[in-house]
UniProtKB/TrEMBL annotation, chain A:
Pfam families: DeoC. It comes from Arthrobacter subterraneus. CDD domains: DeoC. Belongs to the DeoC/FbaB aldolase family. DeoC type 2 subfamily. This is Deoxyribose-phosphate aldolase. It comes from the Bacteria. Gene3D superfamilies: Aldolase class I. GO terms for cellular component: cytoplasm. The lineage of its organism: Bacteria, Bacillati, Actinomycetota, Actinomycetes, Micrococcales. Pathway: Carbohydrate degradation; 2-deoxy-D-ribose 1-phosphate degradation; D-glyceraldehyde 3-phosphate and acetaldehyde from 2-deoxy-alpha-D-ribose 1-phosphate: step 2/2.
UniProtKB/TrEMBL annotation, chain B:
Residues 42-243 form the Aldehyde dehydrogenase domain. This is Aldehyde dehydrogenase family protein. The keyword Oxidoreductase applies. Coiled coil: none annotated. The keyword Oxidoreductase applies. It comes from Arthrobacter subterraneus. It holds the Pfam family Aldedh. InterPro entries: Ald_DH/histidinol_DH (IPR016161), Ald_DH_N (IPR016162), Aldehyde_DH_dom (IPR015590). GO terms for molecular function: oxidoreductase activity. Keywords: Oxidoreductase. Signal peptide: none annotated.
Automatic annotation (TrEMBL), chain C:
GO terms for molecular function: oxidoreductase activity, acting on the aldehyde or oxo group of donors, NAD or NADP as acceptor. The lineage of its organism: Bacteria, Bacillati, Actinomycetota, Actinomycetes, Micrococcales. Keywords: Oxidoreductase. Belongs to the aldehyde dehydrogenase family. Residues 30-476 form the Aldehyde dehydrogenase domain. It holds the Pfam family Aldedh. It comes from Arthrobacter subterraneus. This is Acyl-CoA reductase.
Length: 338, 293, 491
């Protein structure tokens, strides 16, 4: 797919065609995205802060803690990752708390593309189709985290991971293209990556579109990029790579959830949201659950529609869980490190 | 001395026009000294319906007058001083004849009135800076307070003879109200209304938009209650109402929560001050979010 | 049970250490009143909280005498710096006892604890902090050198923000050097009485602040007392009018903060999600029992349906119930009589042809409750578009052009507040210029700050609270001031 220029036709994508119309061009895409109502940062942040004051206690808290675990993409994305590290991560994903087998499993493990075979192997039968407590393998792709590589590298990055057994692809958008106003290029790339998610049997790996909101900077950009990601065919929109500060914030996630809500109002289709990076405490994660429930509705609190991209969060949730069960405070020595 | 004078008919000044009272009434105003062309003149005697019409004219003029820039209002008020300065002799003569003061005292009164227009003219583009302020609130908000004109102000100008006098008293009452962009309906001195009515001619030739100043000569005791109770009047200046049943006027004004200034006695009545400008303003505070993202 | 049903998260009332009975606070001490004592109840449960003394005319007189003595002997002679220190002390004590005060406020008023905790009480402390600093800087307040205090201030406050309104009144009065007799509202005296304890803790000289509880007769005795120099009232326009009449002809300086029917104007280019939040905050904050509430929504016709749909979805997530539950968004109505007025006016709205909508919500069987309510298809002549309902009831009207929005917004005898929602900065400033309202919130609503003057145009009253303008209500220019006066050469 060629880079599009103003006025040239961008790659067809059924959602965009339906919403924007047949004459899908860089210009029409831009006009559409720029026609979306703006965001007042102060109001957005105040709303997020207000949602953050919800007090989640007792039974609600117990449910919330288990739900956080079920929604977690347990993640390791280090240059120093090894098969051994991935194995250890998978072990934690399978049995988060060896002292309490009632603890639910996480939704997925999230690794670099070259680690996918190791993750698949370590998961074993827990990765089989239809397995109870199945754990997905998510791979970051498209020259994660910067996204600075040629289109062909990004596409083979993606197809390699899918071929190796990745169930989900976490791609990064080209923030440079977005910030310089080349929305069509970003759009085309997402469409192309989505195509690269196609498996031989005609099914697709789930595509999460990472906006890297810390680099997009403004809420208006986040909102436009969210629309762009959805229009181009993303199954999820995801805040961050975790390599840029700020990573996920509550206001950014709220603004993305508002887009998802509006998309649902418009089309009836449900898109997922994944805040990633920087969410380390159960208390903070619960604020996200509240924000999801009060913005798009409680039905979004399931792994197909909401995920946390996190690593250290899980252990904090386990400590809180132990406190709820035992009635006393626990300590880091009582949870395992992966 | 042989020439036969052509005396003027002193009419009300309402909506930019010189009109007779709708009631057809006049009252005689006699000179106290023989130096005038005639021994007495008739001034129109306003009725409650004239007061009603004057409020309508004043209300209609609010948006235009308050919508001009302070710089522009300042120039218009200064223009009043210029035109008045050119007619010093006429005003001094009227004052001397009808107030019974010496020629030099009359002249001094006119000159002070002129200078007072100049003083207030200079405030028009400054009172907002002095009385307004930016507010440092604890939050991401731009927050600014500015005084704005309250709207239509009914004024009872000083009535008693002597200092400050019918012209200066009138100017002390009216000028500060105009500075911010209010319009006025004013009842001048009942006994000595001529300077005020002549001043109408100055307004009419000084770029003061029609309806901004409305002058109702006649009986304050008769007209003031209608103005005090009028729902479309925003404020009431009782400066010269000391001899009237002014408490009743204030009570009537309470019905629509008018802003009311009490009577002031003596030569310092309505002494020039910033407070006379700001009293007839409303502070408006505007908040706006400040967000970088 | 669903997650959104959030398990109960009640704020503990155990922090309160209430007495069974409260006297009047006169001359630094609690003394029994000579009127007939009354009960203050929790509007959420109708349960008894405490018995409160009622101040008779004689008690009011004693309070004014105490205030006069304190003014003459102590407060007017004290340095501004020392007055400021007392106010700083009070601010700190309020902060220290914030939790307790918040619980008491929610218990007595019915407002959600999250509002008393996050808005009312923090603002109370902020108000004292702000005016504390003014006490020794009065010559910079804009009234020339050596401005004078007025003397004894009579202050009557409403029930919707009981302690906050007390702070709005007492902080500037004391900073300016006046002494105070304050009457809290009959249905919400509790936090004012706890505040009296704080004054004792602060060692504020006796008589500087006196608190007389009671109903309308007590208030009337107070504002009409011949020895008060200043009357400050917040409440209904009807009572404000009476006070303006009864103080006519006296030298009492009067400031009034009265009713409103605020317009919240939403243009088609508004940041829509924040606008919806602002509409909700504008009319459902404190159950809409706010004089500056955005009770008239003026929405551009082209986005009317979208806004109403979003608004309804948002309202469906509002949690109505126990004021002491930390997750409650909308609490109880303050009294049976207020509830009656909301019901009556809402019924009239329906009879006049407006369409009424409320989200499904289970209202408790005890106490006073009214569901968040939206009226669409409201005409400008309808009573629900003109009368202050003072409850969680929003009237939705439409406009086509900015000029029409301004005309409709100004088409009311009130003039307290307004809101503007648009992404277009120049339009915000132009519309704000033309709105006849004392407070205009652009892309926000219901924000308050001690540095920000607040008060109305037209029948919403006169005078400002907050900022240096708020000080002017309690000061007079020095008798010797003359620096701003014109000195004509011709003199």
């Amino acid at each position: 797919m060629e880079t599009t220029r103003a006025g040239t036709t961008v790659a067809p994508a059924s959602r965009a065609l339906e919403v924007i119309g047949g004459d899908l061009t860089e210009r029409s895409l831009r006009r559409y995205l720029e026609g979306i109502p703006g965001v007042d940062a102060v109001g957005l942040e105040a709303r997020a802060a207000a949602l953050g004051t919800r007090s989640i206690k007792t039974t609600s808290k117990a449910w919330a803690l288990d739900t956080i675990i079920r929604l977690t993409d347990l993640t390791t994305l280090e240059g120093a990752d090894t098969p051994g590290k991935v194995k250890s991560l998978v072990a934690k994903a399978l049995v988060p708390d060896p002292d309490d087998m009632s603890t639910p499993r996480v939704a997925a493990v999230c690794v670099y593309g070259d680690m996918v075979p190791h993750a698949v192997e370590a998961l074993g039968s827990a990765h089989d189709d239809g397995a109870t407590g199945r754990i997905n393998v998510a791979a970051v792709a498209t020259a994660f985290p910067s996204g600075r590589a040629s289109r062909s590298v990004k596409l083979s990055d993606t197809s390699d991971a899918v071929a190796a057994g990745a169930d989900e692809i976490d791609m990064v958008i080209d923030r440079g293209a977005f910030l310089s106003g080349r929305y069509g290029q970003v759009f085309d790339e997402i469409v192309a990556v989505k195509e690269a998610c196609k498996r031989p049997d005609g099914t697709y790996a789930h595509l999460k579109v990472i906006l890297e909101t810390g680099e997009l900077n403004t809420y208006d950009n986040v909102r436009r990029a969210s629309w762009l990601g959805i229009l181009a065919g993303g199954d999820f929109i995801k805040t961050s790579t975790g390599k840029v500060t700020p990573a996920a914030t509550l206001p950014v996630t709220l603004s993305m959830l508002e887009v998802v809500r509006d998309w649902h109002r418009l089309t009836g289709e449900k898109i997922g949201v994944k805040p990633a990076g920087g969410i380390r405490a159960s208390k903070d994660a619960i604020k996200y659950l509240v924000t999801v429930a009060e913005t798009v509705g409680e039905e979004w609190l399931q792994p197909d529609l909401f995920r946390f991209g996190a690593s250290s969060l899980l252990n904090d949730v386990l400590l809180q869980r132990q406190k709820l069960t035992s009635g006393r405070y626990s300590g880091p020595a009582y949870v395992t490190i992966d | 001395m042989s020439r036969l004078a052509v005396p003027k008919t002193y009419k009300l000044y309402v909506g930019g026009k010189f009109i007779r009272s709708e009631s057809g009434r006049v009252y005689e105003v006699a000179t106290t000294k023989g130096s005038f062309s005639v021994s007495s003149v008739n001034a129109a005697k306003a009725s409650r319906k004239d007061a009603r019409d004057a409020v309508v004219a004043a209300r209609a003029a609010v948006s235009g007058w308050s919508g001009t820039t302070g710089y522009n209002r300042g120039q218009v008020l200064y223009r009043i001083a210029e035109i008045l300065d050119g007619r010093r002799a006429q005003f001094a003569e009227e004052i001397a004849a009808f107030e019974g003061v010496s020629a030099s005292a009359a002249q001094a009164q006119v000159d002070e009135a002129i200078d007072l227009w100049v003083w207030y003219a200079g405030w028009a583009d400054k009172y907002v800076q002095v009385a307004g302020n930016g507010n440092a609130v604890s939050g991401p908000f731009f927050n600014l307070s500015v005084p704005e004109p309250t709207g239509v102000v009914a004024v009872i100008a000083p009535q008693s003879a002597g200092v400050p006098g019918s012209l200066l008293g009138f100017v002390r009452a009216v000028a500060p109200v105009l500075v911010s962009g209010n319009t006025v309906v004013v009842i001048p001195s009942e006994k000595a209304p001529l300077a005020a009515l002549s001043l109408g001619e100055v307004f009419a030739t000084s770029d003061v938009p029609a309806g901004v100043v409305n002058v109702l000569s006649g009986s304050p005791a008769e007209i003031a209650p209608w103005l005090a109770a009028h729902a479309d009047v925003n404020a009431l200046d009782l400066l010269g109402a000391g001899e009237l049943e002014w408490v009743d006027l204030q009570i009537a004004a309470a019905d629509t929560l008018k802003r009311v200034l009490p009577p002031e006695p003596g030569p310092d009545a309505g002494a020039p001050s910033l407070e006379r400008i700001t009293f007839f303003t409303e502070t408006k505070t505007v908040w706006h979010t400040k967000g970088l993202l | 049970m669903t997650f959104l049903d959030y398990a109960p998260a009640p704020e503990s009332a155990a922090i309160l250490n209430l007495r069974d009975e409260y006297g009047l606070f006169i001359n630094g001490e609690f003394v029994p009143g000579n009127g007939e004592s009354f009960t203050t109840i929790s509007p959420a449960t109708e349960k008894h909280i405490a018995t409160v003394s009622c101040a008779s005319e004689q008690d009011v007189d004693a309070a004014v005498v105490a205030a006069r003595r304190a003014y003459d002997k102590t407060w007017s002679r004290m340095s501004g710096a020392d007055r400021g220190k007392y106010l700083f002390r009070i601010a700190r004590l309020v902060q220290e006892r914030a939790r307790e005060l918040a619980v008491a406020e929610s218990l007595d008023n019915g407002k959600p604890i999250k509002e008393s905790r996050d808005v009312d009480i923090p603002l109370v402390a902020a108000w004292f902090f702000y005016y504390a600093g003014w006490a020794d800087k009065l010559e910079y307040a804009g009234l020339g050198p050596n401005p004078r205090s007025l003397g004894v201030a009579a202050q009557v406050i409403p029930w919707n923000f009981p302690l906050l309104m007390l702070a709005w009144k007492i902080a500037p009065a004391l900073a300016a050097g006046n002494t105070v007799v304050l009457k809290p509202a009959e249905t919400t005296p509790l936090t004012a009485l706890l505040f009296a304890e704080i004054l004792q803790q602060a060692d504020l000289p006796a008589g500087v602040v006196n608190i007389v509880t009671g109903a309308g007769a007590t208030g009337s005795a107070l504002v009409n007392h011949p020895d008060v120099n200043k009357v400050a009232f917040t409440g209904s326009t009807a009572v404000g009018r009476q006070i303006a009449r009864s103080t006519a002809g006296t030298s009492k300086k009067l400031t009034l903060e009265l009713g409103g029917k605020g317009a919240n104007i939403v243009f088609d280019d508004a940041p829509i999600d924040q606008a919806v939040e602002g509409i909700v905050n504008g009319i459902f904050f404190n159950q809409g029992q706010v004089c500056c509430a955005g009770s008239r929504l003026l929405v551009q016709e082209s986005i009317h349906d979208d806004v109403v749909e979003r608004l309804k979805a948002r309202l469906s997530t509002l949690r109505v119930g126990d004021p002491l539950d930390k997750n409650t968004d909308v609490g109880a109505i303050n009294s049976a009589s207020q509830l009656g007025r909301m019901r009556e006016l809402s019924d009239i709205g329906e009879q006049e042809g407006a369409e009424r909508w409320s989200p499904a919500c289970n209202l408790p069987s005890e106490g006073f409750w009214f569901p968040p309510t939206i009226f669409t298809n409201v005409s400008t002549s309808s009573r629900i578009a003109r009368d202050e309902i003072f409850g969680p009831v929003l009237s939705v009207l439409t406009f086509r052009t900015p000029a029409e929005a301004i005309a409709k917004a100004n088409n009311t005898p009130y003039g307290l507040s307004a809101g503007i929602w648009t992404d277009k900065g120049s339009r915000i400033l132009a519309v704000a210029d033309k709105l006849r309202a004392g407070v205009v919130w652009a892309n926000t609503f219901n924000k308050f700050d001690p540095a920000s003057p607040f008060g109305g145009y037209k029948e919403s009253g006169y005078g400002r609270e907050g900022g240096k303008q708020g000080l002017h209500a309690y000061l007079a220019p020095s008798a010797f001031a003359g620096s701003s006066a014109f000195k004509g050469d011709a003199r």
